Each structure stands twice: as structure tokens, then as C-alpha cells.
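We were asked to recover a plausible sequence for a given structure. The inputs and outputs are reproduced exactly as logged, with field labels preserved.

PROBLEM: sequence recovery
POSITIONS: 327
GIVEN STRUCTURE:
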């Protein structure tokens, strides 16, 4: 059986634009909202405290007809060792036969699709005239989320940033300000200063079992979009539970995870507080909301991975990039 192997360098060589990933992720969300996606809640093991290795399978029907699974690890402790926080492999299968058609690096897929998912959510819940974005956690996701949000919001004039590691903040501002020369980048001393006055707040810190939540309601504007990419690590429960609108990328996965008793505890929204899945917004089943406090937990779902991987696979075939291997 021949399969296409796409390393990280091969994926980067494809030069896929963030806008294309956003389009693919939104399409997957729409199909999910239309009931054409099979995406069970991610299962995993936790070999070390605050570390996970997750299995994320998905089938996307409709006009896409794509199947795959991501085996992905998240180890916050790796950062101290000079190793990546996120690593793993992505596997695409032929839906007709089940045969493996491609294997690729999962860290690239995860980085881009996660930022893209935030952009899709913000497209339906954000104020188009937003001027200030706040980013807490300035690693890979802090970068990717800003890149994706900047594709949607063309009036951004200031980016306020914070990370517990000052050196991370300096690198982030140096790198990102060169991409968005029309924006002012402000290094903040604490989370409260970072989110004050922001139209959009996105938190991208490591996911931990015992979070010390620090972004409080009173620090936020009345009209704000608050997106958690880091589960419940940063936003205090009332930011989510008392929001005018609370959404998640997959209510089934969110509620299943909450039921396990580790994440989304101590006042985080329960089933009756969920306004919509993002897929329902994309499919036109729920109305977009752009005023008041709009809060979202985006855990990351496998449909994003399969859509991004399928896009990469098609681009690789078109450009002749990658290595064919026998497995």
C-alpha cells in the first residue's frame, strides 16, 4: 500500500495561505451544522500531569467525503526542554476502502487549523469594526490566532499582548509587528492591563488540570468577544457562564469533557447555557450575535484537522510535493 508522506517542511513548502485554511475549516463547520460530519469526542491518555495524548477521528460527508484521524500530544513541560508543546501525526484514509492515503505532520495542521477556527467563530460573533485585539499566551497559537483574526478584521489598529515569559513577548512583538506594520503592538505587564479596552480577547496558554483563572468579567468591555483556545485555563467562570451568548465548537465534546470532572468545572456553563455550536452558526441554524459579551470555548475538533489535511493533500498532489512510501 502506497501512502503520501508529508513532513513539516513539505507542508510549509506548499505555501498554503491562512485564508485558505479558514475557508476549509468554515466549510467543515457548516457541514457539521448540517449533520454531515461524524466527530466523536476526543479520547486520550495522560502519561504525565497536565500532559495529554489524544486520538481525534472524523468523517466529513457531503461534497467533501474525507476521513482521517490525528494522534496528537500536548506537553507543556516540553518548553523547558526546548521541545515543541504540540507534536503528532495526521492520517488520512480513503473513505471507500479505508486504506491510508496520506500521513503528515500534525503540529503544522494543528497550528493553522486552530487559529482558523477562532477566525471562523469571530466571523459570526465579532464586531466588524473591532479595533483592538488582546492576546494572552504568545507561543505558536498566540501567533496563529492573531494571523487568522487579522484575515477577518481589517480595522485592527492595536494588539495588546502578554505572556508570563518576557522573552516570549519580545520575540512575539518583533516577529508579528513586521507582518502588520499598520498596527501598534503593546507589551503589557499583566492580564488585566492586556484585556482592558479590547474588542476581542483570545487566550492561548497551556491547558492545565488545576487552572488559576485570572481574566475577570470586570476587566472586560461590555461589548467584547472572548475566545478561549486553552480550555478553562484563563477566563474566570462568570466570563463564560454569565455571557450574553456562549458558544463552543462542539457542544457534545464540551459536555462530555465537563462530565469527566477535570475541565470546565467550578461554574463553567452547563448545557442550558450553550447558545450554539459554531457549526450551527455557519449553517445558518442560529443567528450571529455581535453585541454584548460573546464568549466561546474552542477545544479543537477533528473536523478542522481533516479539512486542513485534505486541503494539504490535494495541494501536494497538484504540486508533486511529498514522498510516496510503502507501508
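RECOVERED SEQUENCE:
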Amino acid at each position: 500500500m502506497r501512502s503520501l508522506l508529508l513532513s513539516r517542511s513539505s507542508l510549509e513548502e506548499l505555501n498554503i495561505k491562512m485564508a485558505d485554511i479558514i475557508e476549509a475549516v468554515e466549510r467543515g463547520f457548516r457541514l457539521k451544522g448540517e449533520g454531515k460530519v461524524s466527530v466523536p469526542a476526543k479520547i486520550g491518555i495522560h502519561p504525565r500531569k497536565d500532559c495529554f495524548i489524544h486520538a481525534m477521528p472524523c468523517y466529513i460527508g457531503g461534497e467533501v467525503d474525507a476521513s482521517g484521524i490525528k494522534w496528537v500530544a500536548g506537553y507543556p513541560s516540553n518548553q523547558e526542554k526546548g521541545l515543541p508543546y504540540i507534536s503528532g501525526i495526521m492520517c488520512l484514509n480513503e473513505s471507500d476502502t479505508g486504506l491510508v492515503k496520506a500521513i503528515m505532520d500534525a503540529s503544522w495542521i494543528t497550528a493553522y487549523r486552530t487559529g482558523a477556527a477562532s477566525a471562523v467563530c469571530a466571523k459570526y460573533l465579532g464586531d466588524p469594526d473591532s479595533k483592538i485585539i488582546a492576546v494572552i499566551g504568545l507561543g505558536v497559537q498566540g501567533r496563529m490566532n492573531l494571523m487568522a483574526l487579522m484575515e477577518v478584521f481589517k480595522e485592527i489598529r492595536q494588539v495588546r499582548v502578554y505572556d508570563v515569559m518576557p522573552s516570549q513577548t519580545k520575540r512575539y512583538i518583533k516577529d508579528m509587528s513586521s507582518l502588520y506594520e499598520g498596527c501598534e503592538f503593546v507589551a503589557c505587564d499583566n492580564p488585566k492591563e492586556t484585556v482592558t479596552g479590547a474588542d476581542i480577547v483570545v487566550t492561548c496558554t497551556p491547558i492545565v488540570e488545576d487552572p488559576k483563572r485570572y481574566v475577570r468579567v470586570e476587566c472586560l468591555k461590555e461589548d467584547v468577544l472572548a475566545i478561549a483556545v486553552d480550555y478553562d485555563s484563563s477566563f474566570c467562570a462568570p466570563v463564560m457562564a454569565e455571557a450574553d451568548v456562549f458558544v463552543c465548537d462542539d457542544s457534545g465534546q464540551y459536555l462530555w469533557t465537563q462530565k469527566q470532572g477535570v475541565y470546565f468545572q467550578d461554574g463553567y456553563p452547563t448545557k442550558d447555557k450553550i447558545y450554539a455550536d459554531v457549526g450551527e452558526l455557519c449553517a445558518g441554524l442560529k443567528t450571529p450575535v455581535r453585541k454584548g459579551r460573546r464568549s466561546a470555548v474552542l477545544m479543537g475538533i477533528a473536523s478542522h484537522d481533516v479539512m486542513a489535511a485534505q486541503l494539504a493533500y490535494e495541494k501536494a498532489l497538484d504540486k508533486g510535493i511529498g514522498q510516496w512510501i510503502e507501508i
